[in-house]
Amino acid sequence: MSIATSGLHHVTAIAGDPQRNVDFYLKALGLRLVKTTVNFDDPGTYHLYYGDSSGKPGSLMTFFPWREAPVGLHGNGQATTTAFSVPQAAIGWWKSHLTSLGVAVSQVVNRDEEDVLTFRDPDGITIALVAHVQGDPREPWDHGFVPPEHAIRGLHSVTLSVDREEATAGMLVDDLGLRQVHEDSNRLRFAAGEGGAGALVDVLVTPEAPQGVVAVGTVHHVAWRAPDERTQAEWREELVDRGVNVTSILDRQYFRSIYFREPGGTLLEVATDEPGFAIDEPLLELGRALKLPPWLEPKREEIEAMLPKLNLPSESGKPA
């Protein structure tokens, strides 16, 4: 493959109640709601984007909150853990902070020389906070509910659970341009670009685990970065030539996307860095209002009537 990703773009998961989702990711994790929009394929459902101050690629976790959908099953063929990067000295603070909010957290474990704290969000999605051993120069969202010195810097990695690793590892290397950098028992780590936080994926080999079912409380897909539309189009052509069943290029308003599955079953996306989240509202006002793409704008009144009202906290950390 002549094209390689530089790292993670975003992770998209399925939530239940949207207000509960907003409260947890803003108030408990201190992320910024950088875009409030809808699922373009199901406009009666929100699509909520959380990230850093501007929603830079590599900082983002997004959700489709389907209140009436069934609960999913964690297992093979899914991304089973989404990890965020935090400062090295912050793990103890996070354990105390989350415990004070009633979140059940794991013991801190050391993996690949990094301290890791694991817990579940209110829908059961597994989240990890990793004190990245090399440090993380990315700036956090500094107007949220978590003090900046402890705040999340962005995505650290994702874990894909599979029943066998060979084909999945082959696609990560051959089709995404990653390289294997570590192996510990049944966990293999791959890195994009120069590696480090935001450019890592772990492949966890669990042949005894059930096949996962994607629904509420599970990750829907994992997106990798492409710098621009031209590169993405060339990448798609190469994937097609290699026999990968890949979608056409889809307009997601804030980036362009293609989708395909890795052999273990996880849905992957390649998303462009451009144009970003400030194309339809000022940077200081990101996420505060419902934004619709031009093709859905004529149906705004109908769409707003279907969506539950969200009570969003203000940037000062007080109810809006």
From TrEMBL:
Q: Which residues form a coiled coil?
A: none
Instruction: Cite a single Pfam family from the UniProt record.
Output: Glyoxalase
Q: Give the matching InterPro entries.
A: Extradiol_RC_dioxygenase, Glyas_Bleomycin-R_OHBP_Dase, Glyas_Fos-R_dOase_dom, VOC_core
Residues of the VOC domain: 7-132, 154-273
Which SUPFAM superfamilies does UniProt cross-reference here? Answer: Glyoxalase/Bleomycin resistance protein/Dihydroxybiphenyl dioxygenase
> What name goes with this protein?
Glyoxalase family protein
- Native source organism of the sequence: Kibdelosporangium banguiense
